[in-house]
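User: Reviewer 2 asked us to show a designed sequence for the structure in our supplementary figure. I'm pasting the structure tokens here. Could you produce the per-position amino acids so we can include them in the response letter?
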């Protein structure tokens, strides 16, 4: 399983927008991203097993 750090760019294994890791509390990772209107930021807390790092 991958290790995540603040600032990593990730996606859900099942597909999602690019998200930035903003907090790591093993095994829960907090991610943030601009929502579809581009004017506000959404946040999700998710188990790290559901995420994968991406190269930008």
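Assistant: Here is a per-position design you can include in the supplement:
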């Amino acid at each position: 399983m991958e290790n995540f750090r603040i600032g990593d760019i990730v996606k859900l294994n099942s597909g999602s927008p690019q998200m930035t890791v903003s907090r790591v509390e093993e095994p829960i990772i907090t991610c943030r991203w601009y929502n579809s209107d581009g004017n506000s930021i959404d946040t999700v807390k998710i188990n790290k097993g559901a995420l994968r790092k991406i190269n930008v």
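For the response letter, you might also mention the following. The chain is about 0% helix and 50% strand. The chain has one domain: 9-53.
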